[in-house]
Amino acid sequence: MILRPTQPLSGFIELTPVQQRVFDLISTRISNVFKNSGFMRLDLPAIERAEVLIGDQDSDELKTQIYLFEKGDTKMGLRYDGTVGLARYVSGHVNDLFFPFRAFQLNRVYRGERPQRGRYREFYQMDIDIIGEQTLSTNYDAEIIATLANAYGSISEFVGPTIIKIGSREFWNAFFEYGEFDENESRAAFSLIDKKDKLNFDDFRNALIDSIGKDKTEMVLSVFENKYDIWADKSERLTATIDDIKTFEKQLESFGIKNYTIDLSIMRGHAYYTGIVFEFYLTDHPELNSVGGGGRYADLCSRFSKNQYVGVGAAIGLSRMIVALFDQNKIDLSRFESVADAAVLVMGNDRVAYALNVLAELRGHGVSAIPYLDADKKFKKQMEFANKINVKYTVIIGEDEEANKTATVKNMESGDQETMSISDVIKKLSDGVR
Amino acid sequence: MILRPTQPLSGFIELTPVQQRVFDLISTRISNVFKNSGFMRLDLPAIERAEVLIGDQDSDELKTQIYLFEKGDTKMGLRYDGTVGLARYVSGHVNDLFFPFRAFQLNRVYRGERPQRGRYREFYQMDIDIIGEQTLSTNYDAEIIATLANAYGSISEFVGPTIIKIGSREFWNAFFEYGEFDENESRAAFSLIDKKDKLNFDDFRNALIDSIGKDKTEMVLSVFENKYDIWADKSERLTATIDDIKTFEKQLESFGIKNYTIDLSIMRGHAYYTGIVFEFYLTDHPELNSVGGGGRYADLCSRFSKNQYVGVGAAIGLSRMIVALFDQNKIDLSRFESVADAAVLVMGNDRVAYALNVLAELRGHGVSAIPYLDADKKFKKQMEFANKINVKYTVIIGEDEEANKTATVKNMESGDQETMSISDVIKKLSDGVR
Questions:
Q1: Could you tell me which chain A residue has the CA closest to the CA of B66?
Q2: Which residue from A237, B323, B393, B410 puts its CA 20 to 30 A from A81's CA?
Q3: Do B37 and A306 touch (CB under 8 A)?
Q4: How high is the pLDDT of residue B265?
Q5: What is the pLDDT of residues A91-107, one digit of tens each?
Q6: Cβ contacts of B112 on chain A, cutoff 8 Å
Q7: C-alpha closest to that of A171 among A68, A84, A241, A234
Q8: All residues at 6 or more sequence positions from B328 whose CB lies less than 8 Å from its CB, including other chains
Q9: pTM metric for this prediction
Q10: What is the pLDDT of residues B37-59, one digit of tens each?
Q11: Contact B21, B326 (CB under 8 A)
């Protein structure tokens, strides 16, 4: 028989057991922040109808990235983000839900991109959304940002502090209207501002001049050079949107959020955003660029329903962020190498019944324990195993221990060992590990 | 634009938010049992190379069930169980792992079967395995069963008690050898015994007679009619295997497992088992048939490695079991309807900043809270929302509350309400919900 390859497909993530423990701890911490903030978990199918996945206005690039296949006459594919499924779910369950509906997702999504550094074909993304029927106060936009800030805060021991950059689609709409940008000029300016961080200043300026002329370029540049609020009195719409930004800042401060900055170059590409947009960055790891972000959208479910659902949502690029930090050895894994609180070593097959008894007692009292049950193997071999699995304590079961209903506990760091009753073992190991 | 369908594809599971909370609680409880027993979580890719998924000896039926597709020149597909990925992972990471290697998986698997009641195209399965290099003591078989028993025990409030039926492949191999069954007779008898529970006694007996003749049929039937241990002295191999079964029973009892029975009709179809096999049934829900099971296998990684890896493993059919109980309304969801500890209602937009402050305080102290931030909506409308989300307490923020840095707490069951300091609110809500 020809042996099959043992490596995963290129572009797919495969963690070591220790990395997996850290990954799971991080996703649990974030999930708990979302639950604490009253978001309900949705766990939607990874496979959707092709017609659900592909929208009328989707780009050809997106279409080629979707994994599509057929069973019988049904064309289907793997979801490429959490939003399409959410929109379908909300439209289909209107009567089971109450609004504003608050959901979070922790899901694998799939993109058939050409694999490259930091781009995966299967990865976890965490989504949170608050969805209203027809209207939704922008107060919720502040709540989403605060929740995301708390989520990153809950894992700061791994990722360090974050900085939040907040933009406003509505500011630019008001600005373009005031400056009498035509549709092409608005679109060109929007798209260049979206790329501003990736271009040097001269390239940015020259590209603007090419698209919208010198005067309008100077207007746009002044937004970044001066404070944006000098535009406040130019038009009613500009006044209103700048007021909204000021209010928004106060709300964030009410939530105790200080690590933000208003940065009107934040656009967040996707077409569907209509109000506040934001991106999160890791202060200590700027090379990762945005590690999450989101914004307000005016019509979530247009593909599925005639009713209008407005919302504000955000996504954390969980796999991308964590795997990049793993790859750069930026996360100290040493604290997580221990698989269990104790190893249980058994001196001979005649001791197994008693050892299983002790094992059940330990586990029943919350002490996680791994037994070595090839009990006729030599003590040295068993000790090697205990060393490999990095436990702090080893519980040794020999003939005397069984006769006296005791066990010998060895501290693997100090080398000290002591024989004691099982209830004392439990006490010692519970103290030692909590 | 033509509206897309809002229902998931047939054969795919979509839970309500309340069902999802129960499902997540159940899978967390079982995961914790596995972790407490020293199993490490593996979260392997859902997509594998086609050549990895399809073995040389796999049936055409299996092949048609796999979702296969291509990207570029690569043929790939969705995993149909957790075992293939585990075998690939172990073979590819031999130097990163220590043996016996203990892993658990909580994963979605995919089968393109024709959808029917209780059969899904995407479902969660939980796998645990202990894998040794070349040898592995059968003591671990008892440990796997005990761990699975604890797993079901941890969710007994939802599924009730279990009964474990334990069979032995080796008993039958020894029995067929002693009875001089030829290869065809062994295979026919094996396959009929595997189906025994689905046939009535006469059909079972007649099918046996057709395949292996009257004398051998009477031999087989006597195993079920009398105690199997009357065969103990017939051959050395029978003596050894029956001794092993007796030892195994003692080990289970050492683990405190009493809810088992030796039932030699348990065969567990799949070809790869070589020793003990077992199935778990819910005492209160016999119509679900087996809800989990497993056994010992002699060669896990033959598709990937020349080295021999022996193991014992088990799987819990999580989605199938839980969704069947949901469908039959056998799980009381009423305890889980509350999404959060409290709703926070805000009397007007001028109160929002203070309300967000209170919200951050509550959440920071572990009180989960959902605000109603369309703050200009009428009090009645806001109260309707609090009623719908089924919270026990509502925290009301009005002008007086802001002025005095207080909040009014309403108990939604009794209707009592009281104005108090924020620290008292936290105290009351923490007491009330824990």
A1: A71
A2: B323
A3: no
A4: 94
A5: 999 988 999 999 999 99
A6: 71
A7: A241
A8: none
A9: 0.95
A10: 999 999 999 999 999 998 777 77
A11: no
What pLDDT does B434 receive?
43
CA angle B108–B109–B115, rounded 5-degree value: 110
Residue B181 in this model has a pLDDT that exceeds 70: yes
Contacts of B35 in chain A (CB under 8 A): 368
Nearest in space to B82 (alpha carbons), one of B46, B118, B50, B117: B46
Please tell me if residue B357 touches chain A, with a CB cutoff of 8 Å: yes
Residue B302 parent element (H or E): none
- Token look-up 């919270």 returns B391
Residue B387 in this model has a pLDDT that exceeds 50: yes
For residues B316-340, give the mean pLDDT.
94
Alpha-carbon dihedral of residues B263, B265, B269, B274, nearest 10 degrees? 60
B406-411/B393-397 β-pairing? antiparallel
Is residue B422 a contact partner of residue B405, using CB atoms and an 8 Å limit? yes
Angle, helix B139-153 to helix B17-36, in steps of 10 degrees:
150
Q: Can you tell me the distance from the alpha carbon of A333 to that of A280, in angstroms, rounded to the nearest whole number?
A: 24
The model's pLDDT over B189-238, given as tens digits with 9 standing for 90+, comes to 999 999 998 899 999 999 999 999 999 999 999 999 878 888 999 999 99
Kindly compute the dihedral angle of the four CA atoms of residues B261, B267, B269, B271, in this order, to the nearest 10 degrees. 130
d(CA B25, CA B19): 10
The answer to whether residue A319 scores a pLDDT higher than 50 is yes
Taking each helix axis from N to C end, the angle separating A236-254 and A139-153, rounded to the nearest 10 degrees, works out to 40
Concatenating the DSSP letter of every residue in A255-269 gives TT--SEEE-TT---S
Q: Could you tell me what percentage of chain B is helix, strand and coil, using 3-state DSSP and rounding each to the nearest 5?
A: 45, 25, 30
What residues in B contact A110, CB-CB < 8 Å?
A: 47
What's the first-to-final CA gap in chain B, in angstroms?
Answer: 50
